[in-house]
Amino acid sequence: MQQLPELEVIGSALQDNVRRLFKGSLAIRQIDTGSDNATEQELAALTNAYYDIERFGIHFVPSPRHADMLLVTGPVTRNMAEALKRAYDATPHPKLVVAVGDDAIDGGIYKGSYAVLDGVSQVIPVDYQIAGDPPSPLVIMQSLLAILDGAKKAPKQKGQS
Amino acid sequence: MSYLLWIIQIMFVPLVAPLGVGLINSLKARIQKRRGASLLQPYRNLWKLFYKDEVISRDASFIFRFAPFIAMGVTIIVGACLPIFTSTLSTPMSDLLAVVYTLALGTFFMALAGMDSGSAFGGSGSSREMTISAIVEASFISSILTVAFLSGTTNIAVMSAGLSPGSGNFLIPIVLAFAAFCIVLLAETSRYPFDNPDTHLELTMIHESMLLEFSGKRLALMEWAAANRLLIFSILAVNLFFPIGIAHDQAVLSVLLGISSTLLKVAIVYIVLAVLESTIAKYRFFRLPDLLLVAFVLNVVAIGLVL
Amino acid sequence: MMSALASPTMLIAAMALFGIGGVGAVLLRKSDRLANYWSSAFALFGSVTALVFAVSMLASGQTFVAQTTSDSFPLLSFALNIDRLAAFFLVTISIVTFFCSLYGIGYIKQYYGRYNIGYLGFLYNLFIVAMLLVVTSSNGIFFLIVWEIMSLASYFLVAYDRHDPENVKAGFLYLVMTHIGTAFILLAFILLYVHTGSFDFTVIQAAMPTVPAHIKDSVFLLALIGFGVKAGIIPLHIWLPAAHPAAPSHVSAIMSGVMIKTGIYMMIRLFLDVLQPAPLWWGIVVLVIAVASCVLGVLYALTEHDIKRLLAYHSIENIGIILLGVGSALVFSALGMSGLAVLALTAALFHTLNHAIFKSLLFLSAGSVIHATGTRNMEKYGGLIKLMPATGLFFLVGSIAISALPPLNGFFSEWLTFQALFQGIAQTDFYIKWLFIGVTAALALTSGLAVACFVKAFGVTFLARPRSQRAEKAHEASAVMIAGMAGLAVLCVAVGVGSSWIIAQLQTIAQGVLSAGDHATLVTVTSGHILSIAEGFATVSAPLLSLLLIAVPLVVWTITRFGINRSQRVTTGRTWDGGTDLTSRMEITSTGFARSIILIFRGLLKPSLQHSVEYEDAASRLIPRSRSVTLSVQDVYRRYLYRPVFIGFIHLSHWIKNGIQNGNINAYILYILVVLLVMLGLVGVW
Amino acid sequence: MNSPLLVPILITVIYLTSIYMHLAKKNNGVAGLYALQSVALVLLFVSSFLANPTVLLFLVIVVSIIVKVILAPRFFNRLVTRHKVKFTVSSYANTPVTLIVIMFITAFVNSDVFLPITDLSASNSTYVALAIAAMLVSIFLMVNRKSALSQIVGVLSLENSIVAFGIIAGLEQSALLQLGTLFDIFVWMLVATVFVSMVYRHTGSLVVTTMRHLKD
Q1: What is the total count of domains within chain A?
Q2: Residue A60: in which H helix or E strand, if any?
Q3: For chain A, does the N or the C end have fewer beta carbons within 10 angstroms?
Q4: Contact C165/C153 with Cβ under 8 angstroms?
């Protein structure tokens, strides 16, 4: 219960940013490009009763077409590279790409393996990164806050680059 | 006054519908011991989607491009025909069959749009949606028909005027038909136990899997239309079968009473829906016809008792 | 002016034009092009002339009777009686033949050099003339002659594409079934002749009070079977899904659009006009058959993946819907509710007109698709709307109309049928009321399934990506073909918007048929073209409905496009495929689409699902080479009705060959003895 | 019809002979019975002649005696001896069943059903019925017997019964017609001889079931 105030503080700041940048609604499509599922567990924890990220206006969606933000996990296996590229293309602007976890940033413990492409940025332009192996839900939320703070300019232009 | 009423009548469904979705989601979150998103979250979602770009499949045709407008337009038309707060605003559009088939027109284009992009999900979603809506139509028509016979008109806008609320003879057929209509409501609006509106698994989706290809404004319209649909069916459920509080004249006070009673009754429906969705499991697809058969039998008995 | 147009000269002129077209086509058969243009052009002129004649007949409200009797053959007379009902059917036929002939000009080109075009033109014109005469004849013998000409001409047209053995088989089935029907009709007329002494409809009608009830009942059953075969009611329908697809598409359109309606016409003529008053059970029988036809027809349509067979099954369904009206009219008139009878008959007539329009539109557009892709198998279509947008649009219009969705014509006739049934529930007593409740539910189920079926038909054919190489190379239909389809599509919209006016006209016709006066007016058209049934029990306004359904989506579009976020950019990309390449095999197929409905109704359809896997390594069965799933539907009628009859016939003939005709003189003499005894006995009884 | 006792006796004889033809075990016996039947028929003619003597009728009587009483039975006996088919009189139904069927036919003919026919001669309707019964029994002989010879006899017996029926029912039959019939029988016998001989040569038997092989 120690963290609760912190969570609330981060959350309400996050909510403000979501309001400002995404009109109060941030839709996230999570893409697993060959992850070991550790990061997925942490992301899934975001929606549980404790973190309840939904109350801040953030929700997960079933299709990249509906998404504002792609959360990519995993080191991008060769088989998933094309899928990731297509998911990126399928997401309408404005969109943000966030690589979650060390694997996604540069391959992590899989770095250099012949089976992976060492990080999301090798395939699609990554806007932000969230480090950790895996990052805890609170870390993810903090990072999201930082990301949205950083993306003060209209994300649309960023996406259009 | 009449113009004002008409404006309320037309705007009511599209404006209130997202709130209803917010209410259900919020209640469900509460039941899951979460706080959940705010009641206004659906409005924010829609607003954001309107300001997003769109990606449309290169395989899709004009059907895909126009289906959202038709789906939305249909719910606006039907919404304006409902007995929302008064039984005095009648149009020739409010005919029972016209309403049912106009809604079916929306489903028709939505299902076509689902198939249009050639995605495997969209196609199977269309197939399931059409299966359910095909076999639910008989129950839909006949449950409202029960009330139509009681009130002597098939015009749903003025139907409640013909019902005398106090008479007990009508109670049993009305309750039976209402029970049947509730099943129809769940089926037509893709709620539990027919469909899971929150699912992210394509294989279990019915309605949502048709929407997977939509983005931006068109997605907003489709989701809005789905919310409208839910509200339309809820209003039908409460104001046809239990028209308590509905205004039979255009006096300010009775209109206000009508609006507030409708809001209250619809809220009850939404609360029940939320509880239902939190407590029961989705049915296996091929068990659904049994449920619809139950609705159908209830209707037949109800009509039989009316006359 | 009007009376000049309504004169019989016009009808004779129309017949003559068809005749010139037919004979000229034969004379010009050496040149495919000339024969085609000649026969189609004269068919067009003939249709226009017949249309003008019939419309002016309707407008002037007169009845035209012509009769030629010869002394040597007193029974055989060329007898025409064109009252409003006949004129209405003339209108329906000539509208459809007009657009089909127009379409035919382009469609026939694919037969150049392969078949004799002159022969086609001759049969085509003959077929139309025979149909026109069928609905105008008023003498049993003359009727049977033109009926037979119609059947034979259509048989030859069904078997026209004779290089495909399937078509020849279909033609044979059609020939057999239609002649079984004709035999029953013949029996019915003979029975009437025996008891009334005439084949003339008016004489028969006048003599009706003297005919005993059991004879009337027998005539009813015989005529129901006989005309039911032509109309395609279940279970006499089996020729229809085989024959309609086999014919050239513009002929399929005429067969499905209007030829099967001649059966309906004769049912209306006999049951509601000539044989009146009718007992209650006639109507109940017709209603039961109608329910079976419409529900099973649409279910079988759902199982089809041959586009023309699908449409043919929908004809069965729609015949069922029309017969719902006819059956209700019979029930109401037997109960003495003439107003309701008029309402029900009006619904039946309106649906007849509408079905003629949208079904021929659908057959014509299906014809363009087949022309462009070379196959009738819907699983090989896909994505055609981008390659043939006009055809796709017309098929969409037809689909909306046949699914009874507003604001097109199909909705309004189904609406009217529903109203007749609603009134049946409201105003009849206990048992009949329950019947009507069941019938209403059946109609609602039918229309729901029809929507699903046309989502399937349109979606699988025109949407998504092409599923075969032929479909990728499909091309738009030629200009005349598009013109033919466009005309019918416009009619779908126009008849829908103007439905209140048309219904009012049809009500007059129905009143004439049922000899009901103006007091029996249940449908009223109030100001603003609002249709009102039974003093406001149900009201609908076709123009308003059409206007709203077009305007509101447009307003929504305008607001979302220009009102909000005007700077939005729309890009096209690939379909979201989850990373795997989408092949055409991942799209939903026709079979897959209907699978769940088929399984829900498995008790009725008796589907058989077969999985078969072929393995690369037969021993260990680890690596499959191919997997296939076959979902087929048993033909219940062939299996449980026709096959036993057929086997019975074979046994009978075996028995005749080996048992009766056994070469034993004793046996032959025994037959003589038995017959002698029976005959003597009969002499004694009489 | 001047002798009230004679006609009943004669018609009974005709009827009984047609029954006995069913029971006879030898072909010669059948031929003999036919001869007896023909005698009875001739006597019927005679009684008719006494009542109404005409030259033609006399001629009929003479020719009848020649053809029916003498020629036909002899011809039969010759056929039987030539083809050695003395005992080939097997029948489909056994004797009791045969008798039951005959009984049924007789009862049927005597029932109300036949009233309109038997009323042709109201005074002796019983005898008319008996003549009809004889006709039907003769046809049944053809049905029941397997041998082709019995069928020939059956036809002849049938012809006898019809003539008897005509006389008793008082139907005017021209004597010329009678002569024609007799001539017909004569020709028929000749043809039958050739036919039976040919069949016999082919199949070695006169049992009609074996003629099935002749079917195409």
Answers
A1: 1
A2: strand A58-60
A3: N
A4: no
Count CA within 13 A, CB hemisphere, residue A126: 20
- Residue C139's DSSP bridge partners are C200
3-state SS string over C141-205? HHHHHHHHHHHHHHHHHHCCCCCCHHHHHHHHHHHHHHHHHHHHHHHHHHHHHHHHCCCEHHHHH
pLDDT of residue A154: 47
**Structure-token pair, residue B27:** 């209640």
Give the CA radius of gyration of chain C: 27
Q: What domain range includes position B71?
A: 2-306
CA gap C378, C457 in Å, rounded = 8
Q: Which two tokens stand for residue C245?
A: 């697809």
Task: Please answer yes or no on whether D136 and C676 come within 8 Å at the CB atom.
Answer: yes
Of C460, C537, C600, the CB nearest to B289: C600
Question: Total domain count for chain B?
Answer: 1
Q: Which residues are paired to C526 by β-bridges?
A: C530
CA distances from C448 to B193, C353, D56 (A): 21, 21, 91
B53: CB partners within 8 A, 6+ apart: A92, A93, A94, B215, B216, C568, C569, C570, C571
State residue D19's pLDDT score: 83
The closest alpha carbon to D79, from D31, D145, D137, belongs to D31
Shortest Cα distance from B272 to chain C (angstroms)? 28
Tracing tokens 């279909």 back to the chain, one arrives at C170
Q: Is C289 left (phi over 0), alpha (psi -120 to 50) or beta?
A: alpha
* Mean pLDDT within C116-136: 91
- Please state, for a pLDDT cut of 90, what percent of chain C lies above it: 40
Distance from CA of A111 to the nearest CA of B (A): 31
* Separation between Cα atoms, residue B81 and residue B239, nearest integer Å: 12
DSSP string, C354-416: HHHHHHHHHHHHHHHHHHHHS--BGGG--SHHHHSHHHHHHHHHHHHHHTT-TTSHHHHHHHH
Please report where in the chains the tokens 């259509």 appear, as a residue: C154
Inter-chain touch C600–B296, beta carbons under 8 Å: no
Q: CB–CB of D143 and C662 under 8 A? A: no
CB-CB contact of D206 with D85 (8 Å): yes
- Domain extent, residue A150, equals 4-160
**D20 close to D33: Cβ distance less than 8 angstroms:** yes
The set of residues, in sequence order, having a beta carbon less than 8 Å from that of B266 and lying 6+ positions away, is B20, B231, B234, B235, B238
Q: Which of A69, A133, A64, A139 is nearest to A104 (CA)?
A: A133
Alpha carbons C481 and C101: distance in angstroms, whole number: 9
Neighbours of C673 (CB within 10 A): 20
CATH for A65: 3.40.50.12280
Residue of C669, C674, C683 to mutate, testing the D interface (most D Cβ within 10 Å of its Cβ): C669
Q: Report the distance separating Cα B111 and Cα B126, nearest Å.
A: 5
Q: Which of C146, C62, C49 is nearest to C94 (CA)?
A: C49
Tell whether the model's pLDDT for residue D174 goes beyond 90.
no
Secondary structure of residue B20 in the 3-state scheme: helix
Q: Following CA atoms C336, C340, C343, C345 in sequence, which dihedral angle do they give, to the nearest 10 degrees?
A: -40
Contact B180, B302 (CB under 8 A): yes
What is the rounded distance in angstroms from the CA atom of residue A82 to the CA atom of residue A80? 6
Q: Which residues of C touch A83 (CB under 8 A)?
A: 578-580
| C207-221 pLDDT, tens digit each | 888 888 888 899 999
Residue A65: its chain C contacts at CB < 8 A? 576
Helices (H), C304-337: 307-334
Predicted pLDDT at C391: 93
DSSP code for C23: H
pLDDT for the residue numbered D1: 45
Amino acid found at C658: N
Cα gap C433→C446, rounded to integer Å:
20
Q: Give residue A158's pLDDT band: very low, low, confident or very high (50, 70, 90).
A: very low
